[in-house]
Amino acid sequence: MKLELRGITKRFPGVVANDNVNLSLNTGEVLSLIGENGAGKSTLMSVLYGMYKPDEGQIVIDGTELVFTSPADAIAAGIGMVHQHFMLVPVFTVAENVVLGVEPTGTLGKLNIDEARRMVREISDKYNLDLDPDAVIEDLPVGVQQRVEIVKVLLRDAKVVVFDEPTAVLTPSEIIEFFEIVKTLVSAGRGVVFITHKLKEALNIADRIAVLRRGKVVGEVDPKTATESHIAEMMVGRPVQLTVEKNSAEAGDVVLKVTDLTVLDADGRTHVEKVSFEVHAGEIVGIAGVQGNGQTELVEALTGLRKATSGVIALDGKDLTHSNPRERHQMGMAHIPEDRQRQGLVGGLSVAENLVLTRYHDDQFSHGVIVEWDAADAMAETLIGEYDIRTPNKETGVGTLSGGNQQKVIVARELSRDLRLTIAAQPTRGVDVGSIEYIHSRIVKERDAGTAVLIVSTELEEVMALSDRLLVMYRGKVVAELDPKKVTPMEVGLYMAGSRPDSAVTA
Amino acid sequence: MKNLFNKLGERLNRVSSMKLTLLAVLSALIVGAFIIIFSDVDNLKNGDILGAISTVGSAYWALVVGSFGSLRAISNTINSSTPLILCGVSVAIAFKAGLFNIGATGQMLAGGMTALWVGFAMDGPGIIQVPLAILAGAIGGAVFGAIPGVLKARTGAHEVITTIMLNNMAAFFILWLLKTDLFQREDRTDPISKLVSAQGRLPRLFGFLDGRSDLVAHIGFIVAIGAVVAYWWFLKKTTTGFEFRAYGLNADAATYAGMHVKRLTVLSMVFAGGFAGLAGAAEVLGTYGYASTNFAGNIGFDAIAIALLGQSSPLGTMFAAILFGALQAGGRQMQTNSDVPIDLIIVLRALIVMFIAAPLLIKTIWRTKSAHVSAGQTFRGWGS
Predict the structure, then answer these.
(1) Which residues of A touch B370 (CB under 8 A)?
(2) What is the maximal distance between C-alpha atoms in chain A?
(3) Cystine design at B286: which of A156, B9, B220, B311 (Cβ 3.0–4.6 Å)?
(4) Nearest chain A CA: its distance from B383 CA (Å)
(5) Is residue A463 part of a domain?
(6) What's the pLDDT score for residue B326?
(7) How far apart are CA A168 and CA A198, in angstroms?
(8) Structural domain containing residue B177
(9) pLDDT at residue B10, rounded to an integer
(10) Does residue B374 lie within any of the structural domains?
(11) Which of B240, B253, B371 sits opposite A357 (nearest CB)?
């Protein structure tokens, strides 16, 4: 089968999300679609999957033009999609999830679960997916859940499988397994579209790499000859610095001291267990870990958004275990939250309003009950310039900005005051390469000014590049303290997966 | 220059959301016209389509004349609009903070009763008693509104449930109150209150015109306009207003930013109750001069539609309330002048709300290509 996208153009009010995009894919090959957030990757795939109708252009399969009005049409044409966020029912078994929508039924529509089990086993064996049809989804690790999604797609007989940022949720070792699966799919004659913003992965797995920038395909490169910096330049449109430039840290006094911190949720589940560590002035401490190992809860406890069940959090020797977020903020703690849409910003408010979101009550911006909008606006103007926030103006709704610029609004707000401690969770998640470079340099600058910095990130490369000291979290505990200059990502990856490199079988 | 273009773009976006609202009203009128034609059995039986169409003309013309065609019509419109504006602001301010206040009716009853008590129990000069009674109305409503706020902040009980229940409790409580010696009119056995003292009545707006006792509009309207201004000022200028907006749009971000969200929950219901209480005071002290069991009528529910129509903005809510008030006032004239029953007004209001709630429908019908559609202010779902 040969899949072609010819001259696809999709316009949204005010933007051209896809501008005359031409792509082709043969079964038996991996096409990587790479581009920054907002480059139009997702829109293009939504067009291919029948969720959007293109304004211009055709989808052509084996020379026949097809019009998709819904995902059902796309599935019927042999296109399958594995979304970044899995579409699984957590309390159903693997077999039940896989057949959902195409259930094998007996008389009177009775679900034939044995047949469903058999189908899962058959596909699982054929592609080495190692799935138990009776396992319940919510008990499975993310990597296995992803394989369930793959089986779903294969059961519907997809000739072309589209993966949308599939590695974002996986550990380094799961990523390796995932690539094996992709290779099996390809050798079994399927085509794979691999959407990513990670250059290394695209170079690793793809047969061809198409680079998207501002809705256009700016070029196709051969992974055998292309370099990372070359692709990054194509993505951004200018040369970019891919590594973090920083001098060695000059650690000062202890600023943050966490002792035996334990965090339970309302249901009594332990998320953080007896965690102790220190962050000194002028150093960056990184916390690595696969998503869902207690980092989120740790950060929430440190910033006052979640109650610590036991243990002590002290800033400059002052116990603030029971202080609320505002008190911590006023003691010089900055928080760049992991989910900027949900926590960091109010999308419906303007850039200027978001820039004072945590500070409107300061004497500088308010007089009694009255907000001094003139002062707030003046500061907004300054910060927009200083932090290079690309926005039409300060009154623009922050929700309309790109991910990178939204993150710059948060960084500007949080770092533009005298700080003792900066806690940054996933500081560059979903941020374009150009902005990542800038945000990293800002964080290093903050460290050099003598602030203690705690970085929590599931992007191993990022946390290794930024940190002066590296902690690894696994199932709520800090399982290792490492020197990021002396370990390899693979070793850290093993800690992240819960095993110790010295006791593990050498791969 | 680029800056100017962007500003213009934003202006246009805002206009387009207003355009959608106007188109919704227009669509409702058109559908309403068809309803009038199809229900005009007399003309249709004779095959007189033109006659049926002319019924539409005369009905709608009567609406206009009855609401704005004369001083008396304007006075009626003002009178109908006054409690709608105040309750509209009540629902709108709660919407802004992300809460759905269905309890404006109960809060209105509570405010009306406290205002009434000051109105007949005290006997001071009007210049003191009237403001005092109005203030009492606001306080009564605010206290009653605080109940669902506190319940939500403390226990997470959803305000939709609690306010509906409290509406019923208020209604029965007032039924009982009106039978007590304190409130019941001396010579009556039915639940009806004593009369507010003459000094306690809200002065009539057109009181300076001699011999026009038919102009019933009272200074409650000034209070309502004042409430709109206060609401605008609160949202735009105050720290708490900013907190309301942030909390309403994104509760997680408000918590992250260190706002005391439980306090905001209570406060928003207190303010909502206060505005609804003012509406109760205006009705009791201005329109009626006494209280019966159902002086709140359907106003608290109409206010929800009004706040949605006005997208919870101060000016939008005010204009939406005046539109509903005008329909109310004009409807009576329409019923008299043409054979179209006043129930058409209810249908029209329902259609307007339906079209507002379905902006996509409006966009399809009128083929508008607007960049930005605001579905109005919404409230958070269950469990948040």
Answers:
(1) 13
(2) 74
(3) B220
(4) 15
(5) yes
(6) 95
(7) 9
(8) 2-366
(9) 53
(10) no
(11) B253
Q: Is A390 on the interface with B (CB under 8 A)?
A: no
Considering the domain boundaries, does residue A121 fall inside one? yes
Confidence at residue A493, expressed as pLDDT on a 0 to 100 scale:
85
Has residue A506 been placed in a domain? no
Which segments in chain A show pLDDT lower than 50? 503-507
The CB density around residue A143, as the number of other CB atoms within 10 Å, is: 18
Query: How many domains, chain B?
Result: 1
* Residue B380 included in any domain: no
Distance CA B261, CA B150 (A): 12
**Contact between residue A72 and residue A50 where contact means Cβ atoms under 8 Å apart:** yes
Q: Residue B253 and residue A343: Cβ atoms within 8 Å?
A: yes
Structurally, chain A folds into a number of domains equal to 2
Q: Are A221 and A270 contained in the same domain?
A: no
pLDDT recorded at residue B52: 84
Phi then psi for B298, rounded to 5 degrees?
-105, 10
At B354 the pLDDT is: 87
Among A172, A206, A236, which residue terminates a domain? Answer: A236
- CA A71 vs. chain centroid, Å, equals 25
Q: Which helix (H) or strand (E) element contains residue B261?
A: helix B261-281
Structural domain boundaries enclosing A384 = 254-496
Q: Specify if B375 maps to a domain.
A: no
Q: What is the rounded CA–CA span in Å between residue A136 and residue A424?
A: 34
> What local confidence, expressed as pLDDT, does residue A110 receive?
85
Which one of B3, B6, B252 has the shortest CB-CB distance to A343?
Answer: B252
- CATH number of the domain that residue B209 is part of: 1.10.3470
CATH code for the domain in which residue A91 is found: 3.40.50.300
**Is the Cβ pair B239, A348 closer than 8 Å?**
no
Are both A269 and A381 inside the same structural domain? yes
Give the torsion sign (CA, A399, B367, B53, B41).
negative
Mean pLDDT, each 10-residue run in order, chain B (384 residues): 53 64 89 89 81 89 93 95 97 96 96 94 85 96 97 94 96 94 90 90 88 89 97 96 95 95 96 98 94 92 92 93 94 87 90 83 69 42 39
- Answer yes or no: is B372 within a domain: no
Q: What is the pTM of this model?
A: 0.81
